[in-house]
Amino acid sequence: MLKSKTFLKKTRAGGVMKIVREHYLRDDIGCGTTGCAACGGAHEGPALEPQPQDPASSLCPQPHYLLPDTNVLLHQIDVLEDPAIRNVIVLQTVLQEVRSRSAPVYKRIRDVTNNHEKHFYTFTNEHHRETYVEQEQGENANDRNDRAIRVAAKWYNEHLKKMSAENQLQVIFITNDRKNKEKAVEEGIPAFTCEEYVKSLTANPELIDRLACLSEEGNEIESGKVIFSEHLPLSKLQQGIKSGTYLQGTFRASRENYLEATVWVHGDAEEDKEIILQGLGNLNRAIHEDIVAVELLPRSQWVAPSSVVLHDEGQNEDNMEREEERESILKTAVNEKMLKPTGRVVGIIRRNWRPYCGMLSKSDIKESRRHLFTPADKRIPRIRIETRQASTLEGQRIIVAIDGWPRNSRYPNGHFVKNLGDAGDKETETEVLLLEHDVPHQPFSQAVLSFLPKMPWAITEKDMKYREDLRHLCVCSVDPPGCTDIDDALHCRQLENGNLEVGVHIADVSHFIRPGNALDQESARRGTTVYLCEKRIDMVPELLSSNLCSLRCNVDRLAFSCIWEMNHNAEILKTRFTKSAINSKASLTYAEAQMRIDSTTMNDDITTSLRGLNKLAKILKKRRIEKGALTLSSPEVRFHMDSETHDPIDMQTKELRETNSMVEEFMLLANISVAKKIHEEFSEHALLRKHPAPPPSNYEILVKAAKSKNLEIKTDTAKSLADSLDKAESPTFPYLNTLLRILATRCMMQAVYFCSGMDNDFHHYGLASPIYTHFTSPIRRYADVIVHRLLAVAIGADSTYPELTDKHKLADLCKNLNFRHKMAQYAQRASVAFHTQLFFKSKGIVSEEAYILFVRKNAIVVLIPKYGLEGTVFFEEKDRPKPRLVYDDEIPSLKIEDTVFHIFDKVKVRIMLDSSNLQHQKIRMSLVEPQIPGISTDISDMDINEPERKKKKLQK
Amino acid sequence: MAGLELLSDQGYRVDGRRAGELRKIQARMGVFAQADGSAYIEQGNTKALAVVYGPHEIRGSRARALPDRALVNCQYSSATFSTGERKRRPHGDRKSCEMGLQLRQTFEAAILTQLHPRSQIDIYVQVLQADGGTYAACVNAATLAVMDAGIPMRDFVCACSAGFVDGTALADLSHVEEAAGGPQLALALLPASGQIALLEMDARLHEDHLEPVLEAAARAARDVHTLLDRVVRQHVREASVLLGD
């Protein structure tokens, strides 16, 4: 083994420092071709096929490998990921450049490399004796890397020729850099641009659409007018950020107004602050989630966040006059106090582009190959793509990736990636919302399934070693109807000393999911089970979630039990945790359990147990509320599905029974007990859940709203908030209290998981508990699995493992879990919204009573209690005379013509599905009562059975 | 900004070694005529010089003399120019004292001190260039120097460091790998018996991982032994040729 040294010098900021690093060159690195005699197959893992069966290329008919350079990898990863492209050599030089330039692409290329079918091989050229090149005097790093790539390509060609001359194997260098290509051809390396090569693949014409369009000539046809100012180079931005002239932050586009965005500046010393950006020019091609540098505008140009709702509806081309007119709408009637720091984007520090779901808006010109794509997410601008299959893609949900945004183009350029299916189709829409919310939903892989227990499964002697046998106890579970993943069961019995023994038994998922294996990794990645209206995306495979872990009745199941001894005042005398085996005697629904408790005739074990639990739960709840726990409210919707078509046939808000709160109370108690225990045992790496107190400014809207109804809401502590919410009743308006609670819920912060060693604020604001965690739903939440493992170690029932006691790994895990939970919530809401649309599509038009939740500048947001549905009523519609609107921000109220709308006012609205825009089907609401001439719609002149006419009427 | 990738998917480290491979080792014995024993070693870019005096009478306070064995006195220093940024104090700081103590422990275990009661053996080690694994280089240099001085030892003392990255144990860490901040273990081994003269680690590492890391360090220490053995034999051969003439 040859080792030789090269010295690399580097200077760092501050003084000049000489850094010497060793660099070993080896002669045992294989070329990656299976069965290469010269290299002796000195490598494992994916390798190149000796006889590549590549798709026929008209440019290069003989068998060949591809060798792309960095830019091809960075920009054309979509093409490389296609199954048609195989046998690609990825150089270490290229991989490292990709790694430092784009983490997502790096991850994708690694995934591709690990896929054996693709035959991608990573060649460690920098450490190979014959392909290492040293940086020459006056040569910059980029040129050196380009040269290194060419040297490697040349070596490969010579190596392959030596290996088997008759095979005529070739390595084709793919680069988009014209100079690099010329040099390569000079050196005798067959080289093509990516476009040339892909176009030569006559058998796969669909690949052309997936090409990222970076070619310059495409943009020249566009209007020569420069719309945006130039982005500053990164070095200048960094200088500016250092000196304080620019601020760095995350760009967040507004959902409601495409001309407005905010930038979250995360400074280390000062508080996070928000900068408003308004107008296309100031947004300067930034896209949602990008990390950008902004420059603050002088105070005279500061604006207030507008309450206008604006959607980009301009058809196809760059009509700048209209934009300017629209921008001026934003700048009306500003109150001095409302002005917020305003800025403009000067440069992009890091793009955070991902593939977007959406639909094609076909160009009006029939032969045009360039079309606009409208993403499903309203915060993403429309994207111009080039495709030949526009007519087939029309009406389909597709995925598109952004390639770039030139200065003279109104929209970014992108390319087509994938077709998902017909829009409006339930399957497709579900796929879209899962993709948009980044919910992993592929079926479980074979590797994951291989870690499942073999069926038939039974409890063995070994399983019982650290377990208590609690099968004799009268345990039962109470869940919503149709629940198949039962993760909790309860029991309650009288002890001989007169005290009560209460047990919460949780499915022992950590018994089946062992740390570190593929099953564990997959469930950690998914983080949570996602419940959509008609479908459940499981976190663990179904065998576990609905069978082995589910605590069904009359079968032996493994559980993790938390057992308290309580007196009749629900005071805990003793707490005990143990792994156990249980046999549930009954799986009840909330309604069944309630019926048993209420019935006078039933007196069996289960019923008395339930009554005992119910009694204790009431005391526990009372005590909790006295401590200042909040009872909040959010409208939740339930659909009744048609059993065959799975279409929603009815929609109602969820009902709450006493038994719901009974189960909830004991789950809270178990969680708190477990949190205390694991924090006691592992003060540095307990996984806990906290709910920070919201900043007082969050409550502003709630206080204002209450004041308008002559009520006072105190928000200094959770306790006073809870009390004042309880008192806020109006005899004439019984629904007011619920509305206030809904508003209060909106003021709250998000509860999050965290690792106890990384934080010192543990308080759970909503539950008024000093410490809290999640223990009770390990089948559907990964956090609970970790908590189970921690607790098992704490009581000596299981052994520990490295990652469990590493607080940084745990903190990373928490970050993922928090993200997944948030996304799951969003996906759930999106699913409800979609089913609401389906429901109203079948239902036709209805008029319902509603309450105003928020008042905006040109619209009101209303809540319909009957369906728990929230919607926006617009008062400005295009092609209609604009009504006189007066918005008062202080109260807040909106005056339209002569009618004034306040928050909580009762109105009557008409609900209908607006399918005029197939991209975004939406529920459209319009005002019926109070009647405002010219604004509200009149019921009498509508014919309920003719949707066609109605639409016309609305749009007139 | 992506940090440095210490171990690539293909199994190569930053400098091109595989996980269990050592850096290039070169050593010479008898580099100074004045001292009783001396040696110089290069492990990659880490370079160390060791000088041994003794056994001789106790210098300074006689009270320090041990009735049943020799006193081993170790001093460690590192040259001001040994690191990237110039050092202020070449010796006498906390780190040097600690290193001196560790060396002393190591060599008390290896040298047959009971053969020289009431006497003293001085071992001075200086690091000329530090590129990770200074302790290991010092021990290896000192072993050769002690042998050069003809002081009887139980066995070679061979030392090597090991680290742990992404579930893989890395042998003989370079400065870059040490600076990345993972756990780092130093092991001094008596290769013939497999006894451990010194084991030192001051980072958190889960107990399950300790065994592979220890195993990697021990294997590397045995490799070092093979190399040092070759150096000693070569030196003896050369010396005997000179004597024979």
UniProtKB/TrEMBL annotation, chain A:
Positions of the RNB domain: 467-797
One Pfam family here: PIN_4
UniProt keywords, alphabetically: Acetylation, Cytoplasm, Endonuclease, Exonuclease, Exosome, Hydrolase, Magnesium, Manganese, Nuclease, Nucleus, Phosphoprotein, RNA-binding, rRNA processing
Protein localization: Cytoplasm; Nucleus, Nucleolus; Nucleus, Nucleoplasm
GO BP annotations, alphabetical order: CUT catabolic process; nuclear mRNA surveillance of mRNA 3'-end processing; rRNA catabolic process; rRNA processing
Co-factor requirement: Mg(2+); Mn(2+)
Superkingdom per UniProt: Eukaryota
Alphabetical list of CDD domains matching this protein: PIN_Rrp44-like
Record has Amino-acid biosynthesis as a keyword: no
GO MF, one annotated term: guanyl-nucleotide exchange factor activity
GO cellular component: cytoplasmic exosome (RNase complex); cytosol; nuclear exosome (RNase complex); nucleolus; nucleoplasm
Subunit structure, as described in the record: Component of the RNA exosome complex; within the complex interacts with EXOSC4, EXOSC7 and EXOSC9 of the exosome core complex (Exo-9). The catalytically inactive RNA exosome core complex (Exo-9) associates with the catalytic subunit EXOSC10/RRP6. Exo-9 may associate with DIS3 to form the nucleolar exosome complex, or DIS3L to form the cytoplasmic exosome complex. Exo-9 is formed by a hexameric base ring consisting of the heterodimers EXOSC4-EXOSC9, EXOSC5-EXOSC8 and EXOSC6-EXOSC7, and a cap ring consisting of EXOSC1, EXOSC2 and EXOSC3; DIS3 associates with the base ring of Exo-9.
Protein name per the record: Exosome complex exonuclease RRP44
Record gene name: DIS3
Automatic annotation (TrEMBL), chain B:
Gene: EXOSC4
A GO cellular component annotation in the UniProt record: nucleolus
Lineage per the UniProt record: Eukaryota, Metazoa, Chordata, Craniata, Vertebrata
Primary localisation category: cytoplasm
Subcellular location: Cytoplasm; Nucleus, Nucleolus; Nucleus, Nucleoplasm
Protein name: Exosome complex component RRP41
GO molecular function, one term: mRNA 3'-UTR AU-rich region binding
Domain of life where this protein originates: Eukaryota
SUPFAM superfamilies reported for this sequence: Ribonuclease PH domain 2-like, Ribosomal protein S5 domain 2-like
Quaternary structure, from the entry: Component of the RNA exosome core complex (Exo-9), composed of EXOSC1, EXOSC2, EXOSC3, EXOSC4, EXOSC5, EXOSC6, EXOSC7, EXOSC8 and EXOSC9; within the complex interacts with EXOSC2, EXOSC7 and EXOSC9. The catalytically inactive RNA exosome core complex (Exo-9) associates with the catalytic subunit EXOSC10/RRP6. Exo-9 may associate with DIS3 to form the nucleolar exosome complex, or DIS3L to form the cytoplasmic exosome complex.
Species of origin: Loxodonta africana
Exoribonuclease phosphorolytic domain mapped to chain residues: 21-152, 155-219
Single biological process term from Gene Ontology: maturation of 5.8S rRNA
InterPro entries noted in UniProt: ExoRNase_PH_dom1, ExoRNase_PH_dom2, ExoRNase_PH_dom2_sf, PNPase/RNase_PH_dom_sf, Ribosomal_Su5_D2-typ_SF, RNase_PH
Keywords of the record: Acetylation, Cytoplasm, Exosome, Nucleus, RNA-binding, rRNA processing
Annotated family: Belongs to the RNase PH family.
